[in-house]
Design goal:
The chain contains 6 helices and 2 strands; from the N terminus they run H-H-H-H-E-H-E-H. It is mainly alpha-helical. The protein has one domain. Strands 1-2 form a two-stranded parallel sheet. Strand 1, helix 5 and strand 2 form a beta-alpha-beta unit. It is elongated. The relative contact order is 0.13.
């Protein structure tokens, strides 16, 4: 039976469950899990892309501060100056973990009744996040971005 579950999960692009998760028992649960992974991965991808772009913007700003004045007047330096950014960012990732009874309609069913629990969960996750003082600290890394993922960093 396990081989059957593994083949179904692989065919649908569903990651195999960790020690605390069960295998999907049917195609609806497999589709639900696939959506969880897809949307979670998209959030993480967007965060990683932002961090990379911000690292480049900060590097451009630092480099422009070191080059001679005559080079600062070139079109290339002016283009870099438009993108240069010394700002820092604290990104907090609150990824909703669907309840088992929610099913696979969570990406198109947005009635008030179905949204109240995710909203409440998001609020509670935000409160839990603020219990971690590091989320309010100024980022020190080269990219100028601090990322806090409650699912990973916020285990209490």
């Amino acid at each position: 039976m396990r081989e059957y579950h593994v083949r179904i999960c692989e065919r649908l692009g569903v990651k195999l469950p960790g020690p605390t998760r069960q295998f999907p028992r049917n195609l609806i649960e497999a589709e639900t899990r696939q959506k969880e992974i897809r949307y979670s991965s998209r959030t993480r991808l967007a965060t990683n892309q932002f961090k990379k772009k911000q690292a480049l913007r900060r590097a451009a700003g630092h480099l422009l501060g070191k080059i001679p004045q005559e080079l600062l007047r070139t079109p290339e330096a002016k283009m870099l100056a438009l993108e240069a950014d010394e700002k820092v960012y604290n990104l907090i990732q609150l990824i909703y973990r669907a309840k088992t009874y929610e099913g696979n309609s969570k990406d198109y069913e947005f009635s008030r009744r179905t949204m109240e629990e995710p909203w409440s969960s998001g609020y509670n996750d935000a409160v839990r996040t603020l219990r971690h003082p590091e989320v309010l600290q100024r980022p020190q890394g080269l990219d100028g971005v601090f990322t806090f993922d409650l699912a990973v960093d916020g285990r209490e």
